[in-house]
Write a structure and sequence with these properties.
single chain, five-stranded antiparallel β-sheet, 22% strand, globular, aromatic amino acid biosynthesis, Chorismate_synth_AroC_sf, NADP
C-alpha cells in the first residue's frame, strides 16, 4: 500500500492497523533543537482518545505515546536532533470478534469493497488501515508540528453544526470547545445537542457534523502560487481525514451567492502602516498565499457508517446480504475529529513555514 506519507519538507508517514499491536508515525524534516517530550504530545492525544464520554466509541485505549527516536538530552532537556522522529501508540483494547460476521461481507459506506477491489485482501477487523484509529498517529504528529510552528500560531477548531442544528457565526466561541463532551463551539447549545445526540445514539444510528477551524498568527507569505497553494494543501489535508466529505475555505460555497463588492476583502492602512482588512471572505489566503489574516475553514464529516440498522449489501461470494454493524462506534465521528482537524492544520502549516523559509529566508 502506497501513499502513507503527507507533506514536503515536513513529512509524516503513519503506520499500523486498528486491531494490530500498535499504530504510529514517523515525522521527517523536523528542525533540530526544538524541545520535545512525550508530555508535549499526550494532552492532544487525550482529547482524541476513545471512551471519554457516552457520545463516542467505548473502546478503552490509553493512547500513551512513546518517542522512539529523533530526540536527545543535550544537557538542558530533550530536544529534536533533526533526524526522523518515530512515535508509537500501543493498541490495548481490540475486540476483533465483533467483526467476524463481516469478514466476507462489505459494510455499506465503508472502505471494505474498495479495499478488496484494489488489493485483493483487506483486514476486516475494525477496518484495518481504513479505520479512524489511524488518526491518533496524525494527532501525535500534529503535536510535533505545533512545536515547530511555535506559540505565536494558534490553532483552534470546534463543532459548529450537529446534524441540522447550527451555531450562528457570531455565536461561535472556540474557548468553549474543550469544556464540553461534544467539542461544541458554544456552551449554550450543549444541553439541546446532548439530548439530540442521545436520541441518535440510543437508536443505534449516527449523524454528520461540521467542524470549523480558525488559525491565527500565520504571517503573510506562506504558501505558493498555482500548484502549492496554501488553501489547496489545507483542503487536501482535511479531505484525507476519515469520514470528511467536504471542505470550505473562508466564505466557501456561500461565495457563490455574493456579489463582487460583497466578496472583496477591502483594505485600509492601520496605525502601524500595515494593511487592515475589513472582512475575511478569502479565509486568510489570497492567490494561494497567506495574507496575514486568520485562516478559516469548515470541514464536513459524514455520519458514521457503522450503525445497528439493517442495511442492504453483498458479500465476496456474490450474494445479497443484510448487515447490522456490531462493535463500538461513534454516533458522531466529527466529535473526535476536532483534534484531528487541528493536527492536520498544524502539519500543513509547519510544512508551509519550512518551505517558505527555504525559498525566501
Amino acid at each position: 500500500m502506497s501513499h502513507n506519507t503527507f507533506g514536503h519538507l515536513f513529512r509524516i508517514t503513519t503506520w499500523g492497523e486498528s486491531h494490530g499491536p500498535a499504530i504510529g508515525c514517523v515525522v521527517d524534516g523536523c528542525p533540530p533543537l526544538i524541545p520535545l517530550t512525550e508530555a508535549d504530545i499526550q494532552p492532544l492525544l487525550d482529547q482524541r482518545k476513545p471512551g471519554g464520554s457516552r457520545f463516542v466509541t467505548q473502546r478503552q485505549e490509553a493512547d500513551q505515546v512513546r518517542i522512539l527516536s529523533g530526540v536527545f538530552d543535550d544537557g538542558n532537556g530533550m530536544v529534536t536532533t533533526g533526524t526522523p522522529i518515530s512515535l508509537m501508540i500501543e493498541n490495548t483494547d481490540q475486540r476483533s470478534k465483533d467483526y467476524g460476521e463481516i469478514a466476507r461481507a462489505f459494510r455499506p459506506g465503508h472502505a471494505d469493497y474498495a479495499y478488496q477491489s484494489k488489493y485483493g485482501v483487506r483486514d476486516h477487523r475494525g477496518g484495518g488501515r481504513s479505520s479512524a484509529r489511524e488518526t491518533a498517529s496524525r494527532v501525535a504528529a500534529g503535536a510535533v508540528a505545533r512545536k515547530v510552528l511555535g506559540e505565536s500560531v494558534r490553532i483552534r477548531a470546534g463543532v459548529v453544526q450537529l446534524g441540522p442544528h447550527r451555531i450562528a457565526d457570531e455565536a461561535i466561541d472556540f474557548d468553549a470547545v474543550h469544556d464540553n463532551a461534544l467539542f461544541a463551539a458554544s456552551a449554550e447549545v450543549v444541553p439541546a445537542w446532548e439530548e439530540y445526540l442521545d436520541g441518535v445514539r440510543k437508536a443505534g444510528s449516527s449523524i454528520g457534523a461540521v467542524v470549523a477551524l480558525e488559525v491565527t498568527g500565520v504571517p503573510a507569505g506562506w504558501g505558493a502560487p498555482l500548484y502549492g497553494k496554501l488553501d489547496a494543501e489545507l483542503a487536501a489535508g482535511m479531505m484525507s481525514i476519515n469520514a470528511v466529505k467536504g471542505v470550505e475555505i473562508g466564505a466557501g460555497f456561500a461565495a457563490a451567492e455574493l456579489s463582487g463588492e460583497d466578496n472583496a476583502d477591502e483594505m485600509r492602512l492601520g496605525e502601524d502602516g500595515r494593511p487592515v482588512f475589513l472582512s475575511n471572505k478569502a479565509g486568510g489566503v489570497l492567490g494561494g498565499i497567506s495574507s496575514g489574516q486568520p485562516l478559516t475553514a469548515r470541514v464536513a464529516f459524514k455520519p458514521t457508517s457503522s450503525i445497528l440498522t439493517l442495511r442492504q449489501s453483498i458479500n465476496r461470494d456474490g450474494e445479497e446480504v443484510d448487515l447490522r454493524t456490531k462493535g463500538r462506534h461513534d454516533p458522531c465521528v466529527a466529535l473526535r475529529g476536532v483534534p484531528v482537524v487541528e493536527a492536520m492544520a498544524a502539519i500543513v502549516l509547519a510544512d508551509a513555514m519550512l518551505r517558505h523559509r527555504a525559498q525566501v529566508g
